[in-house]
Specification:
Elements (H helix, E strand, L loop, with lengths): L2 H14 E3 L9 E9 L5 E9 L4 E7 L5 E7 L4 E9 L9 E9 L8 H5 L1 E3 L5 E2 L3 E10 L1 E3 L11 H4 L7 E3 L1 H9 L7 E3 L10 E2 L10 E19 L9 E18 L13
Parallel strand pairs: 2-9, 7-12, 10-16, 14-15
Antiparallel strand pairs: 1-8, 2-3, 3-4, 4-5, 5-6, 6-7, 11-12, 11-13, 15-16
The structure holds 2-acetamido-2-deoxy-beta-D-glucopyranose (NAG).
Keywords: Membrane, Transmembrane, Transmembrane helix
Protein name: Out at first protein homolog
Pfam families: OAF_C, OAF_N
């Protein structure tokens, strides 16, 4: 049913974005600025940086409300880091900004390698892009806090990226268990109270007071990232397929995590 679409779309992508193989030239790092359409129709400029020596990809963009989203994929340590810097409303007694960090395991094939990313060039930087494949929302329950002083064990980039998050560095219990099984020290993680562990811990929007602990929610969406390489075939018989472009994806993440005060979760009331 989609067969009729394959050719025109892949041709279009191949013209717009090319994977240059730059034979004989080593490419260690690169930066790409891509204009992407956000869910509310606004256009944001996304910065994609690849460093193939450190084997990381960094993606960063600012939402219309001023929130800065930074995503780091550390392929060496198989860790991905989400950092969000949320601007506070000073007139409501909030801090100037609040930083949250979420750390989870990076799965294989979630996005293209840092080496391929470093070779990516775009032909038409003014074009406004939407991802070809829109993936759903992944739900993550962040039941563990990560101690910033020990976070270097998970990824050497974590301390730098999450420095300003302080105590607000979260991971899932299953991820923490995986890292513990692979030699990370137990003191790196601290279990957090969970809403099902008894009365008193409610979702923040229904929490009675600003100074009560509660379970906070935060959602974000990576609107555009290269998730797969595309291979093309030459007409020559028995020639092997070659890399000729990328497939772009968009994916949402919904985090739930403990906060010691509802005051630290004030965005989680407007959408209820
Ligand atoms: C985090 O680790 C440091 C260094 O080991 C330790 O001094 C500190 O007390 C820990 N913080 C928490 C909140 O456990």
């Amino acid at each position: 049913m989609f067969a009729g679409w394959n050719l025109p779309i892949s041709l279009y992508i191949n013209v717009v974005i090319l994977v240059h193989l730059l034979l004989g030239v080593s490419v260690f790092s690169s930066e790409l600025k891509v204009r992407v359409r956000l869910v509310d129709g606004q256009v944001a400029e996304e910065t994609l940086e690849a460093d193939s020596e450190q084997d990381i990809i960094t993606l960063e963009f600012k939402q219309r409300d001023g929130t800065l989203i930074t995503f780091v994929a550390d392929f060496k340590k198989e860790v991905k880091i989400f950092r969000t810097l949320i601007l506070g409303e000073l007139e409501r007694g909030q801090r100037q900004y609040q930083v949250l960090c979420f750390v989870t395991r990076l799965n294989h094939n979630e996005l293209i390698s840092s080496e391929s990313m470093a070779r990516l060039r775009q032909k038409n930087p003014r074009a406004i892009r939407s991802a070809e494949e829109r993936r759903g929302m992944e739900q993550l329950s962040m039941g563990m806090a990560v101690n910033l002083s020990r976070a270097g064990q998970l990824s050497p980039h974590l301390r730098n990226v999450c420095r300003e998050a302080g105590a607000a560095i979260y991971t899932q219990q299953a991820d923490a268990q995986h890292w513990l099984d692979h030699g990370v020290e137990g003191a790196t993680f601290q279990p957090l109270p969970q809403s099902w562990e008894g009365p008193g811990l409610e979702d923040c929007p229904s929490s009675p007071g600003l100074w009560q602990p509660c379970v906070c929610r935060y959602s974000l969406r990576l609107e555009w990232y290269p998730c797969l390489l595309r291979y093309c075939h030459t007409h020559a018989a028995r020639a092997s397929p070659y890399k000729c472009g990328i497939r772009s994806c968009s994916k949402g993440f919904h985090f739930r995590f403990y906060v010691p005060y509802r005051h630290l979760c004030l965005w989680d009331e407007e959408d209820t």
